[in-house]
TrEMBL record:
It comes from the Bacteria. InterPro entries: Glutathione-S-Trfase_C-like (IPR010987), Glutathione-S-Trfase_C_sf (IPR036282), Glutathione_S-Trfase (IPR040079), Glutathione_S-Trfase_N (IPR004045), GST_C (IPR004046), Thioredoxin-like_sf (IPR036249). Residues 87-215 form the GST C-terminal domain. The keyword Cell wall biogenesis/degradation does not apply. SUPFAM superfamilies: GST C-terminal domain-like (SSF47616), Thioredoxin-like (SSF52833). Keywords: Transferase. Pfam families: GST_C (PF00043). The keyword Cell inner membrane does not apply. GO terms for molecular function: transferase activity. This is Glutathione S-transferase. It comes from Bradyrhizobium archetypum. Residues 2-84 form the GST N-terminal domain.
């Protein structure tokens, strides 16, 4: 059986995606807490020795370091035969939503949440810009989840694991009370939380937390 080491920090939704995928597939991993808030990922040494892209997460599989969450999720789905597309059309749809999430939903929510909750003096104009974009993306997902149980239909895939990661964090971090503002998304998040073995990010990823500034 492969051995897994996950370089992460608890607030990283991208780290959570990999931790959750491994957990749902019945795999254990060694957590390697990373001082993201202290700037370690921006040092030349870390980028030389851990990840040249300067990003978290990094998943070590039997000593081989893998980076970029989406291709790792797809690799694990193929390896375990779970949470992937079973037909050519499903595989296309998984990629479609996965790429949309990475470019739009995760891309903006990760930045907005970090800037809003974990920086001491965020610029209100910047926050409003990101909020407008997120409102649009969430409206797209809300309409989709009004008609579908999961991203590509009736069963969850890595696209769902990717899209739900940043949305499941507490409202005082994201700034959204999804139960009120987006009930279909909230119902989908509850369906994901009912998967056998599901755990939240802060349950799966221990370690020192970032300073929380949002009121």
């Amino acid at each position: 059986m492969p051995s897994y080491r996950l370089h992460y920090f608890p607030e990283s939704g991208n780290s959570y995606k990999l931790a959750l995928m491994l957990t749902l597939c019945g795999e254990r991993f060694e957590p390697v807490w990373t001082d993201f808030g202290g700037g370690i990922t921006r040092t030349p040494e870390w980028r030389r020795d851990v990840n040249e892209m300067g990003e978290i997460p990094v998943l070590e599989v039997d000593g081989e370091r893998l980076t970029q969450t989406a291709p790792i999720l797809l690799k694990l789905a193929k390896q375990f035969g779970r949470f992937g597309g079973e037909t050519e059309q499903e595989q296309f749809d998984v990629l479609r939503w996965l790429f949309w999430d990475n470019h739009k939903l995760t891309g903006y929510m990760a930045t907005y949440r970090y800037y809003r909750a974990f920086t001491p003096s965020p610029d209100e104009h910047v926050l409003k810009h990101f909020r407008r974009r997120l409102d649009d993306f969430l409206s797209i997902l809300e309409q989709h989840m009004q008609k579908n149980a999961f991203a590509i239909g009736e069963r969850p895939t890595v696209a769902d694991i990717s899209m739900m990661a940043y949305l499941h964090y507490p409202a005082d971090e994201t700034g959204y009370d999804l139960a009120v503002s987006h009930p279909a998304i909230n119902a989908w998040l509850k369906r994901m939380a009912q998967l056998p073995g599901w755990k939240s990010a802060y349950d799966l990823l221990p370690g020192k937390r970032l300073t929380h500034y949002a009121k």
